[in-house]
Amino acid sequence: xxxxxxxxxxxxxxxxxxxxxxxxxxxxxxxxxxxxxxxxxxxxxxxxxxxxxxxxxxxxxxxxxxxxxxxxxxxxxxxxxxxxxxxxxxxxxxxxxxxxxxxxxxxxxxxxxx
Amino acid sequence: xxxxxxxxxxxxxxxxxxxxxxxxxxxxxxxxxxxxxxxxxxxxxxxxxxxxxxxxxxxxxxxxxxxxxxxxxxxxxxxxxxxxxxxxxxxxxxxxxxxxxxxxxxxxxxxxx
Lengths: 114, 113
Known about the structure:
Shape of chain B: globular
Shape of chain A: globular
Structural class of chain B: mainly beta
Helix content of chain B: under 10%
Distance between the termini of chain B: 41 Å
Number of helices of chain B: 0
Strand content of chain A: over 45%
Number of strands of chain B: 12
Largest sheet of chain B: 6 strands, mixed
Oligomer: heterodimer
Largest interface: A-B, 25 and 26 residues
């Protein structure tokens, strides 16, 4: 089925470790996004990529880096994980235009930093 | 900057009862408005959206929402709730189709048998 695929689904890290969250979409969307979800705070935008080759900071970018590898893939990297980065991470994609259907979300990565 | 407020953190209703989830937004012009639902352990699924035109919009799963410009609101409603509607609901706002989506804090819905 077409959609957004995130890997891994679950991850436990020790403080200071690094990891990369992977995201791929097969809908030929130009825009991709990384959000984090924390209880009572909704979803907050970490980084986004309006199109291949561009990335921009969102609301909470500190401690993260991103790479738009190609049109399909948008990865999120934690260089030195901290307990405050314990969260559920969602990737999304969209294609702005006349036929606008909002964002399509992946199923999330649940990250725990101990 | 645009913002979204969902005043109710948690709502409990009985199965078969009607439901209204509140959403207020802050933005100078008419934004694009969305409601998403998130079942436990799942991603977000689009319920409905409003761009322009008829202020009452119909969505999936029997949900509807009404845009009220005078109140800066976009409340979600369902006439008769089913147990499977228990989930978290997010209202979201967007300035234009190419801009970023801003989410409210979410409302957790519990459905009692």
